[in-house]
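Case study: Methyltransferase family protein.
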Amino acid sequence: MDDWIDYYDSTHTIYVSNRHRDVHFAEIARDIIGYIPSPGAVVLDYSCGEALSAPTVAEACGKLILAEPAPGVRGRLIARYALNTKIRVRSLDDLRTMPEGSVDLVVMNSVAQYMTPAELDQAFAVIRRLLSPPGGLVLGDILRPEVGMPRDVLALLMMARRHGFLTDALWGLARTALSDYRELRTKIGLQRYSESEMLAKLAAAGFTARRAEHNIGHNPWRMTFVARKAE
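Here is what the predicted structure looks like once written out:
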């Protein structure tokens, strides 16, 4: 995961325009809010990235913890949300010292593809310890083995058409083809799981899980799983 952390800590071009960036974060915030169990819930966004719509999520819960491994991104989050009393920024290492059972909902969205299977298992162990007895894990944007980059491109173009940035998306795709992201994705690859593989992985980590009807975010060809601590 270290190479991907370095990439996202750099000045990257994964968004084709400001409109793309804003729509992306707004859609994710909307979907996360749908899983928040109560207005007083403590929510943890695991490897949250820039989290530009975090205030929207924070309004729907009691406390929002943004856990981010990239130090540069984490610094920007601290500065951006310093005055928001409902948002706290943490490193992934900080999560290991948080009290057991102190979180009601953990969201890990579009993260698993950048982790080795062993790293994901370690993350599941930390998350399971943090979850309160009725708490849940939402694991979003899981890549499937049979679905490749063309579907990712199509999903982006569909979103761009809906939200009025199709021309920017076409230019952005051309830039991405020559970018460090494409090079890194080709060199390292992304982790992919079938539905049965991810359900088995969650079960081995001590969760009972099901696949959600809809994926978090804009890509309908990826998967989201909803899990709870197994008895």
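For the exam, be able to explain this: The beta strands are 42-46, 63-67, 87-90, 103-109, 131-142, 207-211, 223-229.
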